[in-house]
Design goal:
The complex is a heterodimer of chains A (47) and B (152). With 47 residues, chain A is an all-alpha fold. Chain A is built from two helices and no strands. Chain B has five helices and no strands. Classes of the chains: A mainly alpha (47), B mainly alpha (152).
């Protein structure tokens, strides 16, 4: 059971990191309609 | 022997169930809509419930205008492409029409910048200094990339 929870946490951690980047990109696109794609990608991948 | 096997299988089943249950309950928002973006901001900036409610109101108020402006920006990029196609194919451009387009484009750009500045200013006013620094840090490369300032 503990192994199951541990593996779930590992998956969640990876998923949160990936989704964070995607949501950051969509947020930046929402707040700045003039933004270009390069700037969005640079910003969203910033730690 | 059967007893041992049963215990092992029950252990595996409990592990799988706890894995699936925990994963499903903790997984992040799957869409790219405003609610997910706000949830992401809440987690990233560690916003309190009160701050979150105020920031949500600010974004909900601004987002229809920003979405409409984004649609206008896309339309104007298409119009520009059409002008460019006409220039390369026929070698002629209606300068009056193009001047009118440039004027419209400038107005939309100004409006976009003003709306974004307003949203950022309103949102940062709700945040603590630390949250503000983190939020502007997320926007920082965008400001550098565009050479524009989103702060008033």
């Amino acid at each position: 059971m503990l192994l199951g929870l541990f593996l779930a946490e590992v998956r969640l951690s990876r998923l949160h990191a990936e989704r964070g980047v995607q949501i950051a990109q969509s947020y930046l696109r929402l707040i700045d309609p003039l933004i270009d794609e390069t700037a969005v990608n640079v910003a969203a991948h910033r730690p | 022997m059967k007893h041992t096997l049963l215990i092992i299988l029950l252990g595996i089943a409990a592990g799988v169930l706890s894995h699936v249950g925990w994963f499903m309950s903790q997984r992040p928002c799957g869409a790219n809509n405003l609610d997910c973006q706000l949830e992401w901001m809440k987690t990233e900036l560690k916003l309190s419930d009160e701050q979150f409610a105020r920031i949500k109101t600010i974004h909900e108020k601004s987002s229809p205008r920003l979405l409409a402006l984004a649609a206008q920006v896309v339309r104007m990029r298409d119009e520009y492409d059409a002008f460019e196609r006409e220039r390369t194919t026929s070698g002629q451009v209606d300068f009056l029409e193009f001047a009118h387009f440039v004027e419209q484009r400038r107005a939309v750009d100004r409006e976009c910048l003003t709306s974004t500045q307003q949203l950022v200013a309103d949102a940062t006013r709700v945040m603590t200094a630390q949250q503000r620094a983190r939020y502007l840090g997320l926007l920082g490369p965008v400001l550098q990339g565009t050479g524009r300032s989103l702060l008033n």
